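Example 3.
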Amino acid sequence: MSAKTPDVVAAPDRQREQGRALTRLLPYLLIAPAVIALGLVLGGTLFRNVLISLQEFGRRQLISRTTEWAGLDNYVEVLTNDRFWSTLVRTFVFMAANVVLIMVIGTLCGLLLLRLGKRMRLVLSISLVLAWAMPIIPSTTVFRWIFDTQFGLVNWLMRTLGFSGYDQHNWFDSGLSTLTIATLLIVWTSVPFVALNLYAGLTTVSGEIYEAARMDGASAWRIFWSIVLPIMKPFFLITTFLEIIWVFKAFAQIYALNGGGPNRASETLPVMAYVAGMGQQQYGIAAAISVVTLLILVVAMSFYFRLILKQEKEQS
Amino acid sequence: MKRKLMAAATVAAMTASVAACGTGGEGSSDTLTVWLMTGSAPEPWLDELNAAFEEEHGVEVNVELQEWNGIQERVTTALSEDGTVDVLEVGNTQTPAFAATSGLADLTDLKDQLGYDAWYESTLATAEFDGRLHAAPWYTANRAVIYDKAMWEEAGAEVPTTRDEWVEALQLIEDNTDYEPIYMPGQNFYVFAGFVWDEGGDFAVEDGDGWVGTLDSPEVEAAMEFYSQLQSFSDSPTDNDEATPQQATEVIPQSEVATWIGLPWQAEAALDALAEEGRDVDYGYFPIPGKTADTLGSVFLGGSNLAVAERAGNKDMAVEWLTMATSAEWMTKFAEATPMLPNQEAALGETEEGSFLEVMGETAAYGEFFPLAPGWANVEVVPNPIKEMMTAVLDGEAHESAAGTADAELTERINRD
């Protein structure tokens, strides 16, 4: 009897151990398809992109299928180009302006959603969802025509309101003006994400807290500062980082508005890479610009991931 | 631009995927893929030609129409792959660039079969590169002034024979009517080129092994002055070209324009669009006036060549199709069906008096080309430094500084292959 006991005990043990191994493996198995797909689609492309950035690669090399290694020449050319640095600064200023506007207006809309009555809340939600759902190219095309020099709605409106000088005003005649219109467009389509998510988050906050604060005589500003902001801090942090990444890589809006013009004055880094590559067929230079852009984004992303990891730790 | 965007993803993805294709040919022996530009070949002519070709060779011809916008990227991609395209139409200013990449088949040994000796000599310059023939000239077209006869009559303006008379006529329209005297976008760079050549200037000159931009020169400055003078009669913004918005179909039908400068098919497209708006317009045509009455204004001899892709899936049949399409017989039919100039004199029939074609015939002797450097194609891609210079000068920047910036960019690009 006693000699047999270990065997009897061992059988379920082994099973349990196998089960445990499976449980340990399961998450990895589940995530594997996503990782493999990402690796193939993004990893492969990224690898090729880095290879191209190390080559002299233009129309001739592409068609004649020759490989001309250039070492870090492309990077040197990009990093010693004044246009690259002014574009980098422009990209950051543009991004900062957009993110601030998106977060402020989005937050205000979110708070408004919470306060509104049922009917108006529905109206506002629908307008927000519609703006969010608008595809990029159509909305950019519409904006392009609204601000058109000859046939544009804005010029007509300004004339009708009695302002002079809007007969043939060209809204795309400077980089600043073009990027301002791009900002309008991007903020308009990005606010809904912030507003709706904030509203969703706020509905989980019990109304009693506000009531208590009001009983204590707290002003609206104080309530926001001392109650909403601390409770929603993770939301604000993560959304801000997401918006930073989204605005930083915004391409279609800026390119479709004015092709990065006039005279390349509204180019941001992604637009600059596109113009160099697809426009001027300098694929090596374009690849180098995109690698540098990617590195900058990776730095931003690392903050984002640190935040997420920290939060998970706090929650567990 | 919008079409380009639809295909746009990130550069990283695009460049990599462009580079990644190029394996696995799909050329089969019983079909032929031909890339033509929209507006080039009249449909009945093309159908008849392809039916005749199919009957003779038993090969089905598959024509894929392409847009000019963004064409360089698409041709580059197509030429880098096996069997994507067999015969392709290449704009004449872009032909040297693609010939230099060795992506176009060498047709030098086929000169006799193609009827080389019959071709207009002037159009050959773009088809030959380093003494080798890389394409067959197909058609050319040059710009002329298109005017609304009724509006001109109302203003009391007459068809001019010199630049000064032209400006006077526009002034009459400005003074006596409410019409826009001339539609002149700020970046009509092909028209501007004619003015530059009128002054005896050019965009770049050969200098040792390379090329140097010559925009910062008295000739180009004088050309720009005349351009500004004409542009001041127009309501157009200074930062658009004749294609965005499309002048013939998007601007003219919506405005009361007395004069504009365009190509034959644009005149036809505008008349169709005007008719759709319920406007019955009678157009007259005259050559762009020269500085004096005994000469005409220079024009860019725009046009297209037909070439065979080096990596064609069906090269023999591609050569056969190209030979047939550019032959005297088919070019004659082509000339009957389109307002374009065919590649040889024999194909040119009688021209109607007062027609666009007649005006083009007159101006053909004043046709010019851009510098025939392989790198010229790089200059023409967006953002074209010459167009940026035109806008800057029209907006008040001094010629010297705007041209200096553009020269630097032009020199850098034209020396790149």
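The first helix of chain A runs from residue 5 to 53. Confidence is low (pLDDT under 50) at residues 1-6 of chain A.
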